[in-house]
Amino acid sequence: MAIAFTSELTIEPGTNVYADAGATITIGGSLVALGTADEPITFRTKDPGERWNGLTIVGGSLEMDYVNLRDFKDYGLYTEAPVAPVSINHVDFDCSSLKFNGIGLRLWNSPTVTQRVQNSVMHSVPSDSHVVGMNLYNCKLAFDNVTIEDCDWINF
């Protein structure tokens, strides 16, 4: 099951986004997910113990602050060919449910658009699982205060 958006999706602080097992959320436009320290936004599976595929932003832009990503199996967040700036700030990637060859954060094909990742952490990667904490390709990036814990692989 895929949920696709083609303009701008805005998610309010304190919102919990629940995905069905095996679902992929794909946004072919812009995502604005601005939580706060007191009211973070959380993406997770609807049913405990299940896993969803991940969140994809294609050809748009992303502004994400104080977001928790949980229960994903293929990737937590994947930005593909953004056409406007990407800002990922205060995002907690819980990689404990990643499958073999899964990816916490995949930033892909943005040689002219800066993707900023700051004050974020990737953690709880299953050991010996060939999980990539971060997979980067053909990107213009700005990193500040990014922590990657317990990763078997980091592919730059």
Care to describe what's here?
The chain has 156 residues and is mainly beta. Helices cover 0% and strands 62% of the residues. The protein is built from no helices and 13 strands. The chain has strands at residues 2-5, 8-11, 16-19, 24-27, 30-34, 41-45, 54-58, 61-69, 75-80, 86-94, 103-123, 132-148, 153-155. Strands 1, 2, 3, 4, 5, 6, 7, 8, 9, 10, 11, 12 and 13 form a 13-stranded parallel beta sheet that branches.
Q: What is this structure's SSE topology?
A:
Elements lengths: L1 E4 L2 E4 L4 E4 L4 E4 L2 E5 L6 E5 L8 E5 L2 E9 L5 E6 L5 E9 L8 E21 L8 E17 L4 E3 L1
Parallel strand pairs: 1-4, 2-5, 3-6, 4-7, 5-8, 6-8, 7-9, 8-10, 9-11, 10-11, 11-12, 12-13
Shape: globular
Average pLDDT score: 90
- First-residue to last-residue Cα separation: 30 Å
Total number of helices: 0
List keywords for this structure.
globular, mainly beta, 13 strands, 0% helix, 13-stranded parallel sheet, 156 residues
What's the short story on this structure?
The protein has strands at residues 2-5, 8-11, 16-19, 24-27, 30-34, 41-45, 54-58, 61-69, 75-80, 86-94, 103-123, 132-148, 153-155. With 156 residues, it is mainly beta.
